[in-house]
Amino acid sequence: MPVKIRLQRHGKKGKPFYWIVAADARSKRNGRYLEKLGAYNPNTNPATIELNVDGAVTWLQNGAQPTDTARAILSYKGAMLKNHLAGGIKKGALTEEQAEKKFEAWVKEKEAKVMSKADSLAKAKADAKKKALEAEKAVNEARTAVPPVVEEATEEVAETEATVIEEITEETTETETPVVEKEVSEEEAPAKEVKASNEEE
């Protein structure tokens, strides 16, 4: 029976996560499996991977073939390296202690890389948030502050309005007085005519 180490899809549409399983090569993608070896969640950054390294190495030594993606995941978590070191122990090129030391050193180095990546991502996110806040503050300050050009323009408008109002008031006073005089002269004219007619009689 050919055995494959492969991914089994779970999760919802657009948010998948996968189980890493050892399954018969003839079974369906999400069908029966022989053993669950771990889980892989690509939705986080960096991706979250849980793997039973010893179980994966056991299946690899028994002839299980990983798919391309599963091979990349096993390599990332060190299962392929451990399998390689186990082969070296069988051949007598390494002792178990040497293999363990090499594997532990590799794991420490890998963890340091992952932590540095996570730190850099967190720092980049914080910097982006800080820049966004500064830009928002600048926009708010620009909205609240009245530019000096606008102040000068408002002063000029106020002065022109004052001069226009003064001119209008002067014009109205000038035009109103002759009208009054005309009305008075018209009233006086009939009175004079009446006096003149009285005198003639």
Comma- or semicolon-separated keywords:
5 strands, S16 Ribosomal Protein, Chain: A, alpha+beta, elongated, 5 helices, 201 residues, 5-stranded mixed sheet
Structure summary:
Helices cover 67% and strands 16% of the residues. The chain is an alpha+beta fold and 201 residues long.
Question: How would you describe this structure to a colleague?
Answer:
This protein has 201 residues and is an alpha+beta fold. Among the domains are: 3-94, S16 Ribosomal Protein, Chain: A; 155-191. The protein has five helices and five strands, in the order ββββαβαααα. The chain has helices at 53-61, 68-77, 79-91, 96-144, 148-200, and strands spanning 3-12, 15-24, 35-41, 48-51, 65-66. A five-stranded mixed sheet has the order 4-3-2-1-5. β1 and β2 (15-24) form a beta hairpin. α1 (53-61) packs across α3 (79-91). The longest helix has 53 residues, at 148-200.
Provide mean pLDDT, rounded: 80
Helix content: 55-70%
Reading the helices and strands in chain order gives EEEEHEHHHH
Strand order of the largest sheet: 4-3-2-1-5
| Low-confidence runs of at least 5 consecutive residues | 177-182
Separation, N- and C-terminal Cα atoms: 152 Å
CATH architecture classification name of the domain at 3-94: 2-Layer Sandwich
Overall structural class, as computed from helix and strand content, comes to: alpha+beta
CATH class of the domain at 3-94: Alpha Beta
Shape category: elongated
* Approximate strand percentage: 15-25%
**What is the radius of gyration computed over CA atoms, rounded to a whole number of angstroms?**
47 Å
CATH fold field value of the domain at 3-94: S16 Ribosomal Protein, Chain: A
**Mind summarizing the main beta sheet?**
5 strands, mixed
Per DSSP, the total helix count is: 5
